[in-house]
Amino acid sequence: QTSACLLTVVAPRDDFGHERIVVGRHFSTMFNACIDTDPGCVWPGKRQDLSNGWRIIVMFGLLGLVLSLIISFIQPLRYSSTARLLILQNIGTSVDAYTASRSEERIAENLSTIVFTSTFFDQVMNAGFAIDEQSFPVEASKRRRVWQGTVSATVSRGSGLLTISAYHQDIRQAEQIVRAVAVVLTDRVGE
User: What angle do CA 176, 179, 180 make, to 5 degrees?
Assistant: First the structure.
């Protein structure tokens, strides 16, 4: 009973033995119409499935919101202190500006990876700042993990700026850590 331009799909029989036939023009509108041997053809349960579907989505959304709020309140508050370092390289006038900028950016990237090493951590602790070493574990692998959570280093693309941030529960400790990192990077960069 359908024209050649319509797509016809025969679905399995429902609980009453009625055959469900779906007719539509495209795959995206395949469920547009329902033809049944029974004149009162409706899709039992389809409207109910859609109304229950939004409730499930809202429920999972609220569950995610509640979990994220619980996690954020359980974690201790940490202060941050930030220092920005401009990386400059004395290369003279023989190199064009683009090459010099890329070279400075590369140096900043290298410095940002050095910040997380154990050797750099030891240099920061021995830099003469009032940093509480008790907040870092004795075991080297755990100390590196805590150090990576305490300090972050990012490079601003195209500018050669290295941004160092330190996070700690005590605001003075965060400030001391970021100052020590900046001093070690500026004083011992040649090593």
Answer: 85
Between 177 and 55, the higher pLDDT residue: 177
- Helix pair angle (140-150, 118-125), 10° resolution: 70
For 34, the 3-state DSSP assignment is strand
Which residues have C-beta within 8 Å of that of residue 47, sequence separation ≥ 6?
none
- Residue 118 pLDDT > 90, yes or no? no
pLDDT at 70 over 60: yes
Give the pTM: 0.59
Q: Considering only residues 41 and 87, tell me which one the structure prediction assigns the higher pLDDT.
A: 87
Residue 168: exposure state from Cβ atoms within 10 A (0-12, 13-18, ≥19): buried
- Cα distance between residue 57 and residue 53, in whole Å: 6
Alpha helices by DSSP H, 75-132 = 97-114, 118-125
Mean pLDDT, residues 180-190 taken together: 82
Half-sphere exposure of 51 (CA within 13 A, CB side): 5
The phi and psi torsions of 85 (rounded to 5 degrees) equal -115, 130
